[in-house]
Amino acid sequence: MKKWMPTIITAALLAGVVSTGSTIQAKAALSSREQVYINGAFQEDARIQNGRALVPLRSLNDSDELTYNYDAKTHEVTVRSKDGGKVIKLKAGSKTALVNGKSVKLNQSIVNHKGRTYVPLRFVSEALGGIAYYNAKDNRAIVRTPAGQAEYETLMKGDLTAARNVAINLQRAYDPGLWYPQGYGYYTYIVFPEGQALQFSRKHRSLTDYLKVNRDGLLEVVYEENDIGGTKPKTRGIKPKREGSFVYFYYDLMGGGLDYGKGKFNSEETKLGFIEDSNDPGNKYPRAVPVEGEVRTD
Length: 298
Prior knowledge:
By secondary structure, this protein is mostly beta strands. It contains five helices and 21 strands. The chain has an eight-stranded antiparallel sheet, with no helix packed on it. It has a five-stranded antiparallel sheet with strand order 5-6-7-8-9, with no helix packed on it. The longest helix is centred in the middle third of the chain and has 12 residues, at about 145-155.
């Protein structure tokens, strides 16, 4: 798989980190220009210096693949793969990293800022086994750890129920105009078009979001409706036209479980089942469950 887009802007953004003593620009500067996402989550702590991006090493957390240790005396970070096949050593102020005992040169030194070790995005791909590329159209650097890449592949073309659960647990893509739920409420109501995992609506408290997963695996808000009282809900965006059949998942914390069913848009829905919390330990809620006879179509 190609890990790098052959463009000048890719090289500029992903090439290095700031040197010790350099001024690190505030996250506001990042969000107004390029954005950095790791495993679908916007990185508020990512920094840009002279067109180059760096991220805190801990933001690359991949509990299935990697462990991290920090030596306060030497200020050295050691990253180990779970299978023991890779050991990486990083030290603030150094222009090299050690990967299995071999030196890997960096354009600029690794930096420690407010107790965090920052590394260049290129290092993510070359040393940690991740995926990193730049979406020039949307000014986004996209990074995935090995586990994040596996989830992305499930999301885009895997099992329908598993893909829906990846989508449900994604953070919304960064947008300074995003609305947030208000008031009280203990339920979440999620609706997917039948056979689909890459678009859905979600209602929680006052807010209903219409969401779509883009090609980078980010969860974009295309329409919002906020019913905070009054005669008419506030709206933002263009409401998608929805036709045909849907499936729903309704989780009520106070009700102690998950209702699920199906129906047709602008018509009644039919409940197919209920899963009680106590009979379903270890699972996150809200979540999707298999619906008999449904086949993925997106």
